[in-house]
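Project standup — Tuesday

K.O.: blocked on the structure for the chain from last sprint. Re-posting the sequence here as requested.
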Amino acid sequence: MWWCGLHALLAAAAVLVGVPWFARGAALVGIVGHAIARRPRAVPGRIVLAADGHCTVPEWHDGRVRLGARTLVCPYWIRLDCDAGSWRRDLVLFADQLDSREWARLCAFLARMRCA
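H.V.: unblocked you, prediction finished:
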């Protein structure tokens, strides 16, 4: 929904801007093209964290990835920096995605773990 909402907002702004009709049309075509071609992939369903600071996302690849220095633990969200050389991805987890007991365990686990 956020992807569609973002592009709807951009399309509304493109329609309201004070430029000739052909420029608005080109902007709308670009916005629709971007919405279709650059749609983000679905979030992974399972993330496995090991005590030695490695992260595995089975849906992405089979290898283990060391969590990078940009891994950040905050009270209501966590950013996992999955750095594997040629590809780098960030996973953002929010507190409402887990129940409170699991969230507290994950925060404590990441606080004890040393990232690269």
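K.O.: great, moving the ticket to review. The longest strand covers residues 77-84. The radius of gyration is 19 Å.
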